[in-house]
Design a protein that fits this description.
single chain; 460 residues; mainly beta; Immunoglobulin-like
Length: 460
């Protein structure tokens, strides 16, 4: 087997983010320090490239992983995952995501990625050159490792450390698991690519000569936050013609029905773990380019998803799990509670006054994690708690921390950035709050804390 790294690839996007602001807060009567995070002095143009590259660590928004073939997909086609099926994965790619104020000039940088196996040994080292243009406020760099055919990846955990100028700026972790544990699978026609419902992705394709055998793709699907998987819709588009095929499963006996079929022959069958649609190649166009879109939605029967995917249901955290203590070189971390708070969090201070933190719009809700932190070096926590952990939902999408603060103090708002004043702990141990903005209805499975393995949680 020939193992080839993905050719150097990167992608950047621009977006608007709020300009840094200074927020003046009322000081509550607590045994805590009032501190001010200093604003960066001088304009970006006055700094050397090396100084600007050093600053990039503070602009890291997230590290994501996604599967692909030898060609990296566009950003809107990537499906971010933390677990990959061993026999269905070709290249696993990391994506380093920055969000920052416009630098005012172009900045070139190089990311060194160090891939490590579970035993700490180095799997591979690679570099990826990228750049940030003067007016960009977001930037992505991506690179991958694997093989253009399936079978290279073996079950196990892997970490990827990302360095700029020999300084680590981010770290991510993913797990490769056996095919049997991977979950529900769906097969369907595929010639070029398959845009999918969020949580789904093409994981295998078998391309045949035009007009002979069916072209097939093995697709991992999301459950659309539903309790059953008895309805899906497939839309096929080809050069010169378009048709819709709606595939339905009867909720009572599970038999599959088809309707609105305009062209072609569709053979359907199902077993307890798989729904399969086999559609022959389009002989009229010589097996030409075809786009298939599969959208998975909820059915009516009350069936636990675990019964469909062949695994036990993952319960919400109980008290014993919630109080498990995790440690790395710097911190001891214990998740005390994980709650969905709705669109607004309101805090009333014992000494008078209070604060509110709101979701950006009506499509989002706030998740509040209460965490017990301990600095293992015994020093006061002060402002070192202002970290950006992330949470991961059932579809593998990661959401960075939006705000952090003490139980009885204002939040540091990462969306505002810049200089903010707030109360901070004077002890080496304290209880802190971390707030995350997620789409309404998200099922949160993990908390990713820097330099710790994923902490399993579940928040609805």
């Amino acid at each position: 087997m020939v193992i080839r790294p993905v050719d150097g690839r990167n992608e950047e996007r621009d977006a608007m983010i709020p300009k840094p602001q200074v927020v003046v807060l009322r000081v509550a009567a607590l045994a805590a320090l009032l501190f001010m995070i200093p604003a960066a002095a001088g304009a970006a143009g006055e700094k050397s490239d090396k100084e600007l590259r050093a600053k990039l660590k503070t602009y890291v928004r997230s590290v994501n992983f996604f599967e692909s073939g030898q060609n990296i997909p566009d950003a809107d086609e990537r499906v971010y995952l933390t677990r990959f099926a061993a026999g269905l994965t070709r290249f696993i790619n990391w994506e380093l995501n920055f969000q920052m104020p416009a630098l005012g000039r172009r900045l070139d940088y190089e990311v060194e990625a160090v891939w490590r196996k579970a035993d700490g040994s180095v799997l591979v080292r690679q570099t990826q050159k990228s750049r940030i243009e003067p007016d960009w406020t977001t930037s992505y760099a991506a690179h991958g490792w694997g093989n253009r055919v399936w079978g290279y990846w073996q079950p196990g955990k892997c970490t990827v450390e990302l360095l700029i100028d020999k300084v680590r700026v981010a770290r991510g972790e993913f797990e490769v698991i056996s095919d049997e544990a991977f979950g529900l699978r769906l097969t369907a026609l595929w010639d070029v690519r398959v845009p999918l419902y969020p949580g789904s992705r093409v994981v295998r394709s078998e391309e045949q000569k035009p007009g002979t055998k069916p072209c097939r793709a093995l697709v991992e699907t999301g459950l659309d936050k539903a309790s059953t998987l008895y309805f899906f819709r497939e839309r096929l588009k080809a050069e010169g013609w378009v048709f819709d095929t709606e595939l339905l499963a009867d909720a009572e006996d599970g038999s599959l029905k088809t309707s609105d079929l305009v062209w072609g022959m569709v053979n359907m069958y199902k077993d307890p773990y798989t729904l399969t649609a086999v559609i022959p190649s389009d002989k009229r166009t010589g097996g030409g380019r075809t786009l298939a879109e599969l959208i998975l939605t909820a059915g009516g029967a009350k069936v636990d998803p675990a019964a469909l995917i062949g695994g036990p249901a993952q319960p919400a955290l109980d008290e014993s799990q919630m109080n498990r203590r995790f440690t790395n070189a710097d911190w001891a971390v214990t998740v005390l509670s994980a709650k969905a708070e709705g669109p607004v969090i309101t805090k009333n201070f014992p000494g008078g006054g209070g604060t509110t933190f709101k979701a950006p719009d009506s499509g989002f809700t706030l998740i509040r994690l209460t965490v017990r932190l301990e600095r293992l070096d015994g020093k006061p926590i002060k402002n070192s708690f202002i970290l950006r952990p992330s949470v991961v939902d059932a579809e593998g999408q990661s959401y960075d921390c939006a705000a952090a603060g003490t139980l009885w103090g204002e939040y540091y708002d990462f969306g505002k950035g810049g200089s903010q004043s707030l109360l901070t702990p004077t002890q080496s141990q304290d209880t802190l709050e971390y707030v995350f903005v997620v789409p309404i209805g998200s099922v949160i499975n993990e908390l990713n804390w820097p330099d710790l393995p994923p902490i399993q949680i579940r928040v609805r």
